[in-house]
Amino acid sequence: MAHSFDVIIIGAGAAGLMCAIEAGKRGRKVWLIDHSAKIAEKIRISGGGRCNFTNLHTQPQSYLSQNPHFCKSALRRYTPQDFIALVCRHGIAFHEKKLGQLFCNDSAKQIIAMLLAEAHEAGVKLETSVQVRAIEAVAGGYWLKTNQGKQTCASLVIATGGLSIPKIGATHFGYEVAKQFGLRVIQPRAALVPLIFDGALLARCQALSGLSVEADVRFGKQIFAEGLLFTHRGLSGPSILQISSYWEEGEPIVINLAPSTDVLAFLKVQKQHQPRLHINNVLAEILPRRLAQSICDERNDSGPLANLSDVRLAALASAVNDWHIKPVSTEGYRTAEVTRGGVDTRELSSQTMEASKQSGLFFIGEVVDVTGHLGGFNFQWAWSSGYVAGQYV
Length: 393
Ligand SMILES: Cc1cc2nc3c(=O)[nH]c(=O)nc-3n(C[C@H](O)[C@H](O)[C@H](O)COP(=O)(O)OP(=O)(O)OC[C@H]3O[C@@H](n4cnc5c(N)ncnc54)[C@H](O)[C@@H]3O)c2cc1C
Hints:
393 residues, FAD/NAD(P)-binding domain, Elongation Factor Tu (Ef-tu), domain 3, 2 domains, seven-stranded mixed β-sheet, seven-stranded antiparallel β-sheet, 21 strands, binds flavin-adenine dinucleotide
């Protein structure tokens, strides 16, 4: 059957653009469509407008998935160095901010311009404001009904991303297509998202809103050592966003607010040498003063160290080094950076991203159950999965 296109890619975000470029370079006739009037909005707003486009330390352990091995093949075949080479070819200046995170010096729009130039060069036909109304499998391919007419293709790629930030075009579309073709979907959930609290804990967070500390945040065996920020709804900052991807509702997280200090040992030494010092002032030597005061107030600890028993000091030290708190919930998709879960990787080939039981149907990027840590890992997954699919569509 003669198709109108060799490949139709639904979703012109990071993964869809990369796949379109690669397929176009292979001489495939590609139609890349998006329902939004503006494409690649997530790239534009990413990294505070500077796009943290990859991470030098990308490894499979930087990703969550029900199958932690699934991402290995794509990440090996299209690496951060490959994307850096592309960025350099386009003369885009960048820098490492911290922990291997690479950002544009100027603007995320440069990454979008680079991808659009590459897509143009590869002969990709890109159209916006295209609504897909129906998809059907036909002999040797797929048939699509859209607001721009009916089209057919040999390979159909779903690159519609996750559910975060609905106001810039996130939809359930990819999951619905997977279900239509009998593919399992791991329950999607907001990830890399601030945590919210209630009651007395919320009141404390509100009183400390705007204050940040370096902290270790733990859930089960997973631990992240980065900044923590008190907000008017609870806690945020990199370490909290990271742990939110692992956190299970109803369970506590554990925070060490002074990771480089054994607080009990410190307090005991201080008590021995300077027993008249007041506890709030002593604690303020290792924590921001407002936080130190809040912890003392919460526990009703005040006055000179000499008046506080070692048992009391141990409890106070625990409140700093081993603070157990139960979030009520997350801020949800409104502020989440990514969606955890998605199309079950057991349904897809890790070599090609094609559905094993539905020939010619591919899923790439965030719609798949592969979710990166904070720090450029999610874009790297979009580039890598888009690249490999682009070699086979
Ligand atoms: C505020 C914010 C900041 C971020 N910063 C970073 C960062 O610095 N580094 C990093 O690695 N990751 C970052 N991320 C995550 C990253 O943006 C995503 O993981 C990545 O964009 C996923 O790429 P994708 O192509 O799979 O999906 P998207 O980039 O989300 O693209 C999906 C596309 O599909 C389109 N679409 C959706 N539904 C339909 C439909 N029904 N029909 C047609 N088109 C549809 C959308 O309009 C969109 O253009 C950030 C995310 C957010 C929200």
